[in-house]
Amino acid sequence: MSMLAGKTVMITGASSGIGAAAARLFAEQGAAVSVMARRTALLDRLVDDITAAGGRALAVGGDVTRGQDVADAVARTADAFGGLDAAFNNAGYATAGQALHEIDEETYARTMDVNVRGVWNCLAHQIPVMLRSGRGGAVVNTSSVAGVAATGASAAYVAAKHAVIGMTKAAAADYGSRGVRVNALVVGSTRTEMMEQVLVEAPQLEQVFMAAAVQKRMADPVEVARAAAWLCSDLSSFVTGAAVPVDGGATALCD
Ligand SMILES: NC(=O)c1ccc[n+]([C@@H]2O[C@H](COP(=O)([O-])OP(=O)(O)OC[C@H]3O[C@@H](n4cnc5c(N)ncnc54)[C@H](O)[C@@H]3O)[C@@H](O)[C@H]2O)c1
């Protein structure tokens, strides 16, 4: 069965990692996907791959921290595919390796901007389109194990990913009775560009991350994308306001 047949899904942070894996998987599952990120050459290549495999995809360049970019991306998606049924708000930014007092203002502001303002911008522009359609919708925001527990030397990221879960619950409460579901993924360590960058800054964290999951490994991006597909699909019709762990059991060890 094609889990997302007939649906249009917008995916942010789709130029690499989890977002790119989700774009490929969602298209395989029957969705028309619009992919948003700043690196448009990578998006164009992704769209070519999806199209060559028989899928439907549209590249919409833009920065999630800019409300106008997000508004344009939502409008172009709805124009191209006749609406918006689901969204995977996945763009994120992380740094690690500094204690709270060592984080500079610019890093703090950027971490909050991409992870928190970015998700808010997306929700604020996507949900009205879903409400107007009369068909409702489903939104998935990417949080992290750092959104439910502290990980060392990343206070700004921990605060930002906690905020993503708070905003997810608040949006679920605001729109639940009008057919829009909003959930978050509590993502564990996953082998992506972001992870590579974090491990360049703090190589000692690789063993810590591997040990944190009861499965004693990191995820492949598609393992996270599969959970996002389920939450975007009608198969999760009674799930909203949830923070769903996809973390190899890492949060099972947090309490
Ligand atoms: N990799 C991990 O271990 C891990 C763990 C927990 C949570 N996450 C979260 O997963 C999400 C995806 O990250 P990833 O691991 O695939 O890393 P990644 O670096 O491969 O992907 C991040 C994506 O976000 C995009 N992006 C960043 N800033 C943007 C902006 N301002 N506007 C538009 N796009 C922007 C990047 O271009 C990229 O496409 C992030 O929200 C991240 O915080 C990752």
Automatic annotation (TrEMBL):
Its EC number is 1.1.1.-. GO terms for molecular function: oxidoreductase activity. Keywords: NAD, Oxidoreductase. The keyword NAD applies. The keyword NAD applies. It comes from the Bacteria. Residues 7-192 form the Ketoreductase domain. Pfam families: adh_short_C2. InterPro entries: KR_dom, NAD(P)-bd_dom_sf, Sc_DH/Rdtase_CS, SDR_fam. PROSITE patterns: ADH_SHORT. Belongs to the short-chain dehydrogenases/reductases (SDR) family. This is SDR family NAD(P)-dependent oxidoreductase. It comes from Streptomyces longisporoflavus.
